[in-house]
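Troubleshooting: if your tokenizer reports a length mismatch, compare against these two reference records.
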Amino acid sequence: MQAKKDIGDAAGLGHLETELKQYSIVCFKRCSPAETHDETISAHDVREAHQKASRLFADSAILRISRVPPPGQLTEYPGARFIHGRFQPAMP
């Protein structure tokens, strides 16, 4: 196990043992800016996700990259709602 980690560190691949996370990519093609696309890619971190997205969607402009929560994990939303220009408390 230690040898594998040493080889990965020497090659600049220190993230070999970490798991891949899902990232959502929102982009639009430069030739048709009215259409947005939502794609999902796997990467170790957001920096790598941005690099992969730049290569995969070279003809597109990337608007947003966000991490997709793992299955089974609840997504937390704010406890307020924006109604008529004001924040109102959310009802349970």
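Reference record two:
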Amino acid sequence: MSAYTKELQQRFPSAAIEQLGSKQMAIVAQPDGTTNLVSYETVVGCKQNGCWYLTTKKYSITTSKQLTQFARTVPNVEWVDI
């Protein structure tokens, strides 16, 4: 388990965490069904009814690249202003 995953596990103790590659990005699935996409410490997307809603807000070049790469790997993506 990476240091990043351990940090997220402390923030979300009951969640299932899936780190995406070696990046500082992970899918955090809560027991209540809430699924978020987290980049570094910021929630940048969520999954509802099988659709990923990803933010159009610019945080950093790295986060923007990570979001674009993630969007290419999953079906049903909508970009929203969150």
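Descriptive notes for reference record two:
- The mean pLDDT is 93.
- Strands lie at 16-19, 25-29, 35-39, 42-48, 51-55, 77-80.
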